[in-house]
Design a protein that fits this description.
Blueprint lengths: L5 H11 L34 E2 L5 E2 L2 E4 L26 H13 L5 E5 L6 H18 L5 E5 L6 H10 L2 E3 L7 H7 L5 H24 L9 E8 L6 H15 L3 E6 L17 H16 L4 H5 L15 H8 L6 E2 L5 H4 L7 H10 L7 H5 L12 E2 L14 H5 L12
Parallel strand pairs: 3-4, 4-5, 5-6, 6-7, 7-8, 9-10
Antiparallel strand pairs: 1-2
């Protein structure tokens, strides 16, 4: 390890960090360097697109591990103690220097820092916090910082991370407690949720202090987590239920889903192949329904297969729900409440808001609705307009075949 130069360490530790999906930057505090003071900005517009700001712009992040050495032996992790991989380790100062150097070259606009466990959880957390502290206080860095915290570390250290970071995340790792016990026996679901609960209280206390006192210290604006999909026996129904629990209990900004990928020298208890990537996509769609479309976890669970507990891969969960509960359709776009319109397949939140705004001044025709959505064809069985009524179309036995997306053969040499 000592023979590696900075470039060699960066190659290893940047590659090792690619398995962590929870690096979005939505909710970052707005900071800039106007007046000639400070370094960095969360509102800059240049750089490689790696993540998203609150206003929807893509920004670049330096995404690395402090080290890929670890004292834990989680079966699904390529950096586990027993894994035969090249190891490397940055010092806190090296990460600080890299971040500043990359920023000044206009490569990045922020830092996402995680780590394997070295020495002890407390020691590792101290090093992670020191990176953020040095950037903020020693160098007046005002760019985005996301820190991956360690639930086994001292709560004071985890809270210290929140004082310097825009976002923190604590991974629950797997959707079920039996799965975590089997594949990561050194980790504890109660400890993970306990750390999440403490972070939520700290975030809420900070928000309350900011409302009361203008100059109250800043704190992380939110926390997120990640679940590995397909490494254990957890079904989509289990995953959706766990995500809803986490959102409700800990006020998470996001739950990220990462499809399990087979690793070299894998344990015999792991599956031999990764789950379909479409499964990860369907879980994100289900997550979106719960967060923005008024769907409850029970609504989403009703779209899963009653035997396997899995979401359908050929159609999205919103369409699956509409096909199963046809008695709720068709919906009159000129009269239906917002909640009913959000259940219509093919209508997004922007389209629904456009309908609600436009129908205040006129009765909407099918042509008007078509201007608000990508394709009106998918909507036809589910809506009523001034000049359109589906009649018996909604009750057709072959409705799924009519509205489901058609398989497309990709062109290997297409542009």
């Amino acid at each position: 390890m000592s023979r590696l130069d900075m470039a060699g360490k960066l190659e290893i530790l940047a590659d090792a960090a690619k398995y962590d999906a929870s690096c979005a930057s939505s909710g970052a505090q707005k900071r800039d360097s106007r007046g000639g003071k400070g370094i960095g900005s969360t509102t800059a517009s240049s750089g490689i697109c790696h993540s998203y700001t609150p206003d929807g712009r893509c920004i670049s992040l330096l995404k690395i591990l402090l080290t890929n050495s670890c004292i834990f032996d989680c079966h699904y992790c390529i950096n586990r103690k027993s894994s035969n991989v090249r190891r490397a380790r940055f010092t806190a100062k090296e990460v600080v220097d890299l971040t500043l150097s990359f920023y000044k070259r206009n490569y990045i606009e922020g830092l996402f820092l995680s780590s394997g466990i070295i020495g002890s959880p407390d020691y590792t957390m101290e090093q992670i916090v020191e990176v953020a502290r040095s950037l903020r206080l020693d160098h007046d860095f005002r760019g985005y910082i996301h820190l991956k915290t360690i639930p086994d570390a001292d709560p004071m250290l985890v809270e210290a991370a929140g004082r310097f970071a825009d976002r923190v995340s604590i991974n629950v790792e797997l959707p079920t407690v039996p799965g975590l016990t089997k594949l990561a026996p050194e980790k504890s679901a109660p400890r993970i949720e306990g750390a999440m609960g403490q972070m939520r209280l700290a975030i809420e206390d900070s928000k309350d202090a900011r409302r009361r006192y203008r100059h109250a210290p800043r704190f992380a604006t939110g926390q997120s987590t990640q679940m590995i999909v397909g490494a254990d026996d957890g079904t989509d129904r289990d995953i959706v239920g766990r995500a809803a629990h986490l959102y409700d209990r800990f006020g998470l900004r996001r739950v990220y889903y990462s499809a399990f990928s087979p690793i070299p020298d894998a344990s015999a208890v792991l599956p031999l192949k990764r789950p379909p990537l479409q499964r990860e996509n369907r879980l994100y769609q289900a997550d979106w329904l719960m967060r923005f479309y008024t769907f409850t976890p029970e609504d989403v669970a009703q779209t899963t297969d009653p035997v396997t507990g899995m979401l359908p891969l050929d159609i999205d969960p919103k369409l699956a729900w509409a096909l199963k509960f046809r008695e709720h359709f068709p919906v009159d776009v000129n009269r239906a409440p917002k909640e009913a319109l959000l259940r219509v397949p093919g209508l997004g939140t922007k389209a629904v808001n456009g309908i609600l705004s436009a129908r205040r001044v006129r009765r909407l025709r099918l042509e008007d609705v078509g201007r608000l959505t990508v394709s009106v064809k998918k909507l036809l069985p589910f809506i009523i307009c001034e000049d359109w009524r589906p009649v018996r179309l909604t009750d057709r036995a072959d409705l799924k075949a009519l509205v489901a997306p058609k398989p497309v053969q990709l062109d290997l040499f297409g542009a």
